């Protein structure tokens, strides 16, 4: 089976700094891959390269398409940024309709089909009655769903999530990730997400890739990648792994400070 | 999954924000009221219906007796009408330019005046006038072209300097103020060095909607058309730019290219407006923000309505300027500053809240 996303030998240099070096990554259709790694490892840059927002060397093929033109890319890949810009005064309906931009072109108006898709997305995300409200007036969780709605309206097969849970409390974190999982199953979406919370990454991902110092250090199923040794090596953290039926649970241990000196 | 037809939302089919007939009618009505007021009110009051008949009489193939004396007919056709038309064009252009800058820079306080664009255009025009490069007539006269060059230089410098100081609302405006001060100082220097042109240019600095027949409206018209056509074409793209460059690019657009095009178009119009009517401040802020408050924030309605309400606003401001101290005339820049400065403070307050 051809993978939905294939990244090969990806190099990105930003302002003279070699941020990504020889990154290889693949995700098959319908798969959920979580990218974890310490701060500054290049996680967001990897997502931005997938979106075609930064210049890169190497190859990125999405759904058989290696076209670097933005509009073509935007029909294949939708993006939920870590801190979305919420435009003042913009209505939720207009905001979700922005997701139709790559389909309608710069100058054209939305078609009835665009509006039908956006309406359907709003209902699916329990925002049915919110179309005439401004995005700003929504609560944190509702806002996150509106951003998700814009991405869904894009009808792209690949969904990129950059720390989708950062600003949310535990309940809303679960809501968002459950929603992504449900949508993935309904629509066969391929999900690539960066996550800080390793336990959540283990629970919601089919596979995990550890990105460290601009390279993919480890990749595989959560139970294989999230080992005490890997976490110590790449995060400089001392943890205990508790096996749970739903996946490994990562528990930080108090001895961290004593052993930290050994970590690179 | 529930049926979208029964989503419970207001209306069952999702509608995008746009120009509704009701708001379009409001804009047209405002412009019509302003035109009627501008044509009928003045040192000589002329009845509206006679003005209407006189204008119909002017149409090719129509001969109507309006009942106006020749002198009154001349006041309507040769003095007031060109002035009203110029007011419409200048007001519409400055307003739509302001709305465009606000959208392109995602900055509620951006306008031709505060970004230093007007000052740049002013310096360009002053240099052209003092060096006798043009006589202010004709579309390709040196004065508007020099003003355009000055406008482009100043908007570029403001934008780059504002970026160096961070990307906040404040840094762009501070940079604009610095650029405007510098250019105004340059202009003063040029003026002092050419004191014979002082009176002419000083009157122009304060702003005026004065016409000598149809030459000013004729000069302004093509610039107005180009600006409006380009900017309106990009109204939907400007709505996408509202989510920032990164997200707009992820939605498939080229934000920098779009910004470059609309800023060029807005600057072209603003420069032409400055070259025919001097430095008229705050219009580019007052009108778009009032439209946003009244009708909504989408550029699909803010841009076209700014044209209509901007034209109306300028004609009425000009009416106030020429009647408040009649028979003396106030510079129109004084009128707009009277209204605009308090409004500016209001925008500063509300910009932290919802409308922008």
Q: Strand-and-helix sequence of chain A, N→C? A: EEEHEHEHHHHEHEHEEHHEEH
Radius of gyration of chain B over alpha carbons?
21 Å
Shape estimate of chain B: globular
Order of strands in the sheet with most strands of chain A: 5-6-7-3-8-9
Query: Ranges of chain A with pLDDT <50 over ≥5 residues?
Result: 256-264
- Number of helical elements of chain B: 14
Distance between the termini of chain A: 39 Å
Mean pLDDT over the residues of chain A? 90
Largest interface: chains, residues each:
A-B, 52 and 43 residues
**Number of E strands of chain B:** 0
Order of H and E elements of chain B: HHHHHHHHHHHHHH
Q: Write down the Rg of chain A.
A: 19 Å
- Beta-strand share of residues of chain B: under 5%
> How much helical structure, as a percent, in the residues of chain A?
25-40%
Mean pLDDT of chain B: 85
Biggest pleated sheet of chain B: none
- What spatial form of chain A do the alpha-carbon principal axes imply? globular
Q: Say what oligomer this is.
A: heterodimer
Major sheet details of chain A = 6 strands, mixed
Terminal residue distance of chain B? 35 Å
Overview in brief:
The complex is a heterodimer of chains A (264) and B (356). Chain A has 264 residues and is of the alpha/beta class.
What's the arrangement of secondary structure elements?
The complex is a heterodimer of chains A (264) and B (356).
Chain A: E1 5-14, E2 17-27, E3 32-36, H1 43-50, E4 57-62, H2 70-74, E5 77-80, H3 92-97, H4 101-104, H5 112-124, H6 140-153, E6 158-162, H7 170-187, E7 190-194, H8 198-204, E8 207-212, E9 215-220, H9 222-225, H10 228-235, E10 239-242, E11 249-252, H11 256-259
Parallel strand pairs in A: 3-7, 3-8, 5-6, 6-7
Antiparallel strand pairs in A: 1-2, 1-4, 8-9, 10-11
Chain B: H1 21-40, H2 48-58, H3 70-104, H4 117-130, H5 142-164, H6 169-193, H7 198-205, H8 215-233, H9 235-241, H10 245-250, H11 255-277, H12 283-295, H13 299-323, H14 332-350
Helix pairs in contact in B: 1-3, 1-13, 3-8, 3-11, 3-12, 3-13, 4-5, 4-6, 4-11, 5-6, 5-11, 8-11, 9-13, 12-13, 12-14, 13-14
């Amino acid at each position: 089976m051809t993978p939905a996303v294939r990244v090969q030998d990806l190099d990105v240099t930003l302002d003279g700094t070699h941020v990504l070096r020889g990154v290889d990554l693949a995700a098959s259709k319908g798969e959920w891959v979580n990218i974890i790694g310490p701060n500054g490892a290049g996680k967001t840059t990897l997502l931005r390269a997938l979106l075609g927002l930064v210049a890169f060397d190497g190859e990125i093929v999405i759904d058989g398409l290696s076209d670097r033109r933005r509009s073509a890319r935007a029909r294949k890949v939708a993006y939920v940024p870590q801190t979305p810009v919420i435009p003042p005064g913009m209505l939720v309906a207009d905001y979700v309709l922005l997701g139709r931009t790559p389909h309608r072109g710069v100058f054209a108006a939305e078609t009835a089909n665009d509006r039908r898709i956006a309406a359907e997305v709003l209902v699916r995300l329990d925002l049915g009655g919110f179309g005439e409200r401004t995005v700003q007036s929504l609560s944190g969780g509702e806002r996150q769903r509106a951003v998700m709605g814009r991405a869904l309206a894009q009808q792209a097969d690949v969904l990129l999530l950059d720390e989708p849970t950062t600003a949310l409390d535990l309940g809303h974190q679960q809501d968002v990730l459950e929603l992504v999982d449900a949508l993935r199953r309904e629509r066969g979406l391929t999900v690539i997400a960066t996550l800080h919370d390793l336990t959540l990454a283990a629970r919601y991902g089919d596979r995990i890739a550890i990105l460290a110092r601009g390279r993919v250090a480890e990749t595989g199923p959560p139970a294989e990648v999230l080992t005490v040794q890997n976490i110590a090596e790449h995060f400089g953290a001392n943890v205990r792994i508790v096996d749970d039926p739903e996946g490994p649970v990562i528990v930080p241990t108090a001895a961290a400070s004593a052993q930290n000196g050994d970590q690179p | 999954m529930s049926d979208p037809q029964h989503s419970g939302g207001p209306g069952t089919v999702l509608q995008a924000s746009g120009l509704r007939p009701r708001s379009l009618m409001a804009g047209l009505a405002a412009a019509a009221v302003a035109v009627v007021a501008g044509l009928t009110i003045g040192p000589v009051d002329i009845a509206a219906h006679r003005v209407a008949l006189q204008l119909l009489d002017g149409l090719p193939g129509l001969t109507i007796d309006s009942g106006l004396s020749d002198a009154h007919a001349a006041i309507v056709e040769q003095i007031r009408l060109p002035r009203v038309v110029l007011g419409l064009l200048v007001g519409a252009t400055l307003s739509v330019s302001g709305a465009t800058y606000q959208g392109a820079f995602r900055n509620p306080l951006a306008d031709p005046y505060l970004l230093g664009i007007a000052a740049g255009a002013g310096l360009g025009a002053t240099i052209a006038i003092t060096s006798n490069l043009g006589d202010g007539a004709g579309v390709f006269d040196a004065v508007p072209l020099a003003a355009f060059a000055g406008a482009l230089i100043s908007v570029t410098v403001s934008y780059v300097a504002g970026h160096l100081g961070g990307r906040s609302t404040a840094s762009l405006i501070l940079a604009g103020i610095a650029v405007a001060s510098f250019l105004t100082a340059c202009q003063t220097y040029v003026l002092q060095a050419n004191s014979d042109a002082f009176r002419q240019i000083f009157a122009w600095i304060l702003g005026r909607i004065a016409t000598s027949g149809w030459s000013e409206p004729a000069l302004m018209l093509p610039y107005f058309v180009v600006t409006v056509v380009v900017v309106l074409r990009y109204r939907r793209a400007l709505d996408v730019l509202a989510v920032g460059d990164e997200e707009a690019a992820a939605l498939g657009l080229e934000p920098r290219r779009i910004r470059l095009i609309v800023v060029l178009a807005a600057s072209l119009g603003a420069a032409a407006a400055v070259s025919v009517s001097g430095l008229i401040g705050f219009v580019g802020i007052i009108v778009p923000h009032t439209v946003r408050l009244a009708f909504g924030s989408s550029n699909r309605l803010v841009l076209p309505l700014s044209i209509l309400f901007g034209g109306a606003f300028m004609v009425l401001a000009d009416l106030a300027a020429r009647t408040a101290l009649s028979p003396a005339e106030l510079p129109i820049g004084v009128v707009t500053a009277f209204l605009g400065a308090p409004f500016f403070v209001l925008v500063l307050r509300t910009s932290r809240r919802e409308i922008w």
